[in-house]
Amino acid sequence: MKKRDILIIFCCALCLHGSLRAQTDSVRTALQTVKSKYNSGAYLSAEIEARRLLEHTPLGDSSIITLQTYIAFSLIAQGKPDIAREHFKSILAIDPDFSLDPVYTSPKILIVFHETKQSFFSSRKFINNDSAPSLKNSLPSITYRAIVFPGWEQIHAGRTTTGSLFLGAGFVTLGAGITFEFLRSSARQKYLASTNPPDIRSHYDIYNFYYKAEIASFAAFAFIYVASEMEIFAFDHSPSVSIQPAISSVRGTTLTIDVRF
Q: Where along the chain do its domains lie?
């Protein structure tokens, strides 16, 4: 492969990485805009901007929770607590452990939130035959992004710093491995085509260097991939398989097995 083709591969990788970083920065800026409008008392504008982002922007769970929080806050400030309750319920559906700071949050907002939280878990308890709600099962599930490329799942989940580190390291090591593979192939052809001993030795040394560099690069990518997978499953506390008792009026006590994919 020509050097131009190698540069094209690197440029494509860098462009993809740059586009993901640009998207992350854009979401962070938009969230800051919503926060500024709310803090300045422009509650209707903050609500509209937050709704627009939810409808037209792919977001991780943490960003969705942030936007839903500002929508609920803005609605309460506009005297619409009943509508705000629905947005608090959306937050609790994503993160049942979500809570508001009792010191920095308005008492009016705290009252609406606590009433909504009590109602939310009471309704879930009724649906689950009076059994305690399983908080862990409500945590966001791991998606296919986890196995496609290191860092993608973390960015999707809203952990942009960790995701960007894994993503960048993955692009660098994989790109280096592919580059050294093509360089090694070219060096091998020159080595096999050599006829005199000095050229043979020189071309072999170059070939051997690219060979070791290729192995090291792919090994580094494999390490980053495994580390990314371990970080994902360590962060996600919900079990992949769970066994729960259930009471049925027809069959009595039964066991249900829940397997997550």
A: 3-133, 145-235
Tens of pLDDT, residue by residue over 171-206, are: 999 999 999 999 999 989 888 888 888 888 898 999
Output the pLDDT for position 225. 93
Query: Could you give the angle at which helices 61-77 and 3-39 cross, rounded to 10 degrees?
Result: 20
Helix runs in the chain, H state only: 3-39, 43-56, 61-77, 81-94, 107-127, 145-148, 152-156, 160-193, 197-235
CB atoms within 10 A of CB 100: 17
Using a cut of 0.85, tell me whether the model's pTM lies above it.
no
Between CA 45 and CA 51 the distance in angstroms is 10
Mapping DSSP to helix (H, G, I), strand (E, B) and coil, where does residue 248 land?
A: strand
Domain 3-133 is classified in which CATH homologous superfamily?
Tetratricopeptide repeat domain (1.25.40.10)
Q: Which of 64, 233, 84 is nearest to 158 (CA)?
A: 64
